[in-house]
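Continuing from the previous page...

OK, I double-checked the sequence for Hexosyltransferase against my notes and this is the correct one:
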Amino acid sequence: MREKNKHYAVIKSASYNAQAANSSSISLSRLFFFFFLYFFFFVLFNFRVTSPSVAGSPRKTITVGEIPQQHKQFGVLIGILTCPDKYDRRHFLRLVYGIQSSSPSADIDVKFVFCNLTKPEQRAFVALEILRFDDIIILNCTENMNNGKTYTYFSSLPRILPRRYDYVMKADDDVFLRLAPLALSLEPLPRLDLYYGFVIPCASMNPFVEYMSGMGFLLSWDLVEWIGISKIPQNDSYGPEDKLVGKWLKMGNKAKNRFSNKPAMYDYPGTNGRCSHELIPETVAVHRLKRWDQWLHVLEFFNVTEELKHSNLYHL
Ligand SMILES: *[C@@H]1O[C@H](CO)[C@@H](O)[C@H](O)[C@H]1NC(C)=O
Ligand SMILES: *[C@@H]1O[C@H](CO)[C@@H](O)[C@H](O)[C@H]1NC(C)=O
Ligand SMILES: *[C@@H]1O[C@H](CO)[C@@H](O)[C@H](O)[C@H]1NC(C)=O
Ligand SMILES: *[C@@H]1O[C@H](CO)[C@@H](O)[C@H](O)[C@H]1NC(C)=O
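Thanks. Re-ran it with the corrected sequence; updated structure tokens here:
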């Protein structure tokens, strides 16, 4: 397990390295390999970043707070709403987000969110995941479509999170998010009273017309706090979840700042009429990735694995 996760571990956590160094079972050559990999990711990151103000240290996702954040302008929590039994999907998404660098300006945490566990094996397997990755939030609710999970998600966060973020996103588990373009798109936007996403209806370019698609939308922290205390969402939490959020904000006269990120967010080509279009380089989110051939197409289009180095240890 440790072998398999070596790359991930090196990206994830400096303290993991320290821990490894303390272990007497780790040979010197292996230690050297760790430091080599660490150095490698530093170089890689700095190479990829195009911004002239590269003063910050690299920051990978799905991590909490082990690298100093003094250079970060804002923090984003991405909660991927999923179900406890989708172990394979979480494994895959951890890879997809774990290898992405975000940006020098944003500190992005990716977490998986679901409702109460219901089976004994879930308590064991999910506990393993938490021990290894610490990227799971279990809400006090019952798994069900449109049963108020999104309400429970936003309204619980201010109470249960150990820190505040500037923005909180809700994302589906069939969406591919590109963290660096997402962070870049947020940089110039207001930190308060912001509602960001892909506006429905599909063809609309007016972010005030209805609501942001459930594929992935983002609220500023003040709106998350408002959802936590307002009676408006509390009394109206059953139904299509993305539509409800738009309704609450309208009723509460909230979200004066809105940003619909089209064409950078969209449904996978051919899956959803006018919400779909071809893959484009400036993508922030591609939604409705239900099949492996669709994920493959996306990973190839965005050159996600191109950084892989040659090695005697493998051939692809
Ligand atoms: C969890 O939800 C149930 C049912 O909605 C409620 O009765 C209970 O008080 C909640 N527990 C906590 C810790 O919030
Ligand atoms: C979820 O689980 C907790 C702890 O086991 C329990 O207190 C709570 O009532 C459950 N909530 C729901 C909505 O079933
Ligand atoms: C709760 O919502 C229902 C249905 O939308 C509405 O009729 C009722 O007046 C609302 N109650 C409060 C206290 O807002
Ligand atoms: C992927 O790599 C190819 C070949 O280097 C390049 O032409 C293309 O623009 C890259 N695609 C993206 C989305 O960056």
